[in-house]
Amino acid sequence: MNETFMKEKPVLPLILSMTLPMVLSMLVNSLYNIVDSFFVAQISEEAMTALSLVYPVQNFINAVGIGFGVGINAVIAIHLGAGDHEKADQAATQGLVLAVIHGVVMTVCCITIMPVFLRMFTSSEAVIELGVRYSVVAFAFTLIVTVSMAFEKLFQAVGNMKTTMISLMCGCITNIVLDPVLIFGYGPFPEMGIEGAALATGIGQALTLTIYLVVYLARPIRVHIRRQYILPSKKMVIKLYSIGIPATLNLALPSLLISALNAILAAYSEVYILVLGIYYKLQTFVYLPANGIVQGMRPLIGYNYGAGEHQRVSQIFKIVLCMSGIIMVLGTVICLLIPGQLMGLFTHTEATIQAGETALRIIGAGFIVSAVSVTSSGALEGLGKGAPSLLISLCRYVVVIIPAAFLLSRFFGAVGVWNAFWITEAITAIISICVYYKAIAQSQLSPSTVK
């Protein structure tokens, strides 16, 4: 592969070649989320509620893995664009070491806190027991998740999106196939219930990492893990965390948001907690493909930023914004047309389905405008500007929506919480545009700050 293709290939074909594999793999990943929840819902409504309550902690683990991976991705891409291969290797090596440390720490901490965490949101012993049983198995694979994410971002940084696509798809398809087998005990497999869902997920994640390792060893890429860089360099560690921490917080903030909204909704009924949990499963069909586009965009923006190709950075941003907008339009249309059918995948209780129909129609109104904040935040991460990206996410997940949800719920009940979503997206879109262009203007697209 031509090492300079990221700054020489025409912009639109380049973006399509980088983003389409990721969109496809994210769509499969979305299907996994739906199928996983569908089979858990067949166990009982309590099992689905438990899964909804565990989800914020799962999301936090993924946020740390992906967010720090974004830091690895951005630093590697920027140094490759500037032609500094030694720094790129150093970033990859030290990023992997730190990912291992993150995985070990989170495994211990997350398994330990789960009983107390679950009791904050429910008094149902059945739900708590199911949640603990699921999380102990699922969180045992945390180290595999963080290391896998590091390799995923390493491959993406050099433009090797096909390997990422194949690895993610194989892991997700394995998970989908194993879900009913391990949950209900088909063939020679024992019936494991909710633990089976967790084990299926873990096996899929392990397969994804295995494929990354095999490809890395069999087909060397431009960036290498090297022994001489294992000992941490203060400057490189700071550089990785300066992007990785804001990116992690960007992805972890939804966990804080879901927990806060669960607390607000619990005052009305556990039905609304279940509805919120189902919504967050369904919305992956919209936001994961959009995230796939953003994942393809980040290394392109980082590479061209490092190479001083300012005009191409602007073109990439505008085209990706349009592509994300198209996906969001489709998401809005689906939520308006068939909300009842979507809710019916996870529950047969008529009251829950009706509450979910209302929620999906209201929340879906904010999908389209959310393309602005999603794209702006991802572009800033690709440019190595973690703080402005974090500012956008803080507005989207904390500063605006939590107070809005709290106040509106006092007047309109649970419906007020659903309306807080589209109101927040509209306000955050305006803020995002201002933050993005201000960050660009201040830096004047100078890559010198990352060298």
Automatic annotation (TrEMBL):
GO cellular component annotations, sorted alphabetically?
plasma membrane
The places in or outside the cell where this protein is found are: Cell membrane
Instruction: Cite a single GO MF annotation.
Output: xenobiotic transmembrane transporter activity
Q: Where are the transmembrane segments?
A: 12-32, 60-83, 95-118, 130-151, 163-186, 198-219, 240-265, 271-290, 319-339, 359-380, 387-408, 420-437
Keyword Lipid metabolism attributed: no
Q: Tell me yes or no: is Transport among this UniProt entry's keywords.
A: yes
**Which topology term describes how it sits in the membrane?**
Multi-pass membrane protein
Keywords, A to Z, come to: Antiport, Cell membrane, Ion transport, Membrane, Transmembrane, Transmembrane helix, Transport
Which InterPro entries has this protein been placed in? MATE_fam, MATE_MdtK, MdtK-like
Q: Which GO terms describe its biological process?
A: monoatomic ion transport
Q: What's this protein's function? A: Multidrug efflux pump.
Q: Family assignment?
A: Belongs to the multi antimicrobial extrusion (MATE) (TC 2.A.66.1) family.
NCBIfam families assigned to the protein according to its UniProt record, in alphabetical order = matE
This chain's protein is named Probable multidrug resistance protein NorM
> Organism, per UniProt?
Vescimonas coprocola
Q: What is the lineage of its organism?
A: Bacteria, Bacillati, Bacillota, Clostridia, Eubacteriales
